[in-house]
Amino acid sequence: MSCRRGALIVLEGVDKAGKTTQCKKLVQALKESGRPAEMMRFPDRTTKIGQLISAYLEKKSNLEDHTVHLLFSANRWELVPLMKEKLEQGISLVVDRYAFSGVAFTSAKPGFSLDWCMNPDVGLPKPDLVLFLQLHPAEAAQRGEFGTERYEVGDFQKIVMQKFELLMKDPSLNWQVIDAAKSIEDLHAEIKTHSETAITMAENQPIGELWK
Ligand code: TMP
Fold this sequence. Notes:
Strand content: 5-15%
Largest sheet: 5 strands, parallel
Bound molecules: thymidine-5'-phosphate
Radius of gyration: 17 Å
Structural class: alpha/beta
Order of helices and strands: EHEHHHEHHEHHEH
């Protein structure tokens, strides 16, 4: 490697935890402190695969459950060459949702094992840090109604949360669980500290492979 690579930083959490706000604030703060950073999000609704997913989430179309799971995964894989290029250029990527959402949401459906759900994402670039924004369902409810997209249903989100908890037990990943009930600024400060440490640690390491 000719230059220090960037870090892959993923933000996960149930809906309403404030992931998108925090991703944006983190990218801005990293840039201001002289660390190149860019935001990405999954699903990336701009690609052809992303448009199929978006129509499904907006309930404009129906897709078979296995099929949509594989589309979410394919939507990550199609961005892998770009992700690797950016990381190798020294740009840290701050990613709003990744394979963990993929597994948590599909395995919350009846008949899907965690293992089956993980398989298509095995070998993706491995995050150097996974920040999980933890929010109690009662707190999430206080933040207003869910939207109208598929999956934005309280009971389903509770099962999703349980699946995330199973994934967090994996010691091969750098999970950091953060209390999202804090103020936006306090949460940001905590996220920034974890991210700076991860960026320093990742600098001289090769990009890993997820779940391998
Ligand atoms: P968004 O609101 O952050 O755009 O997320 C879209 C929805 O898609 C959200 O309910 C989580 C869900 N999802 C999956 O089911 N599988 C995935 O792989 C990802 C990334 C998101």
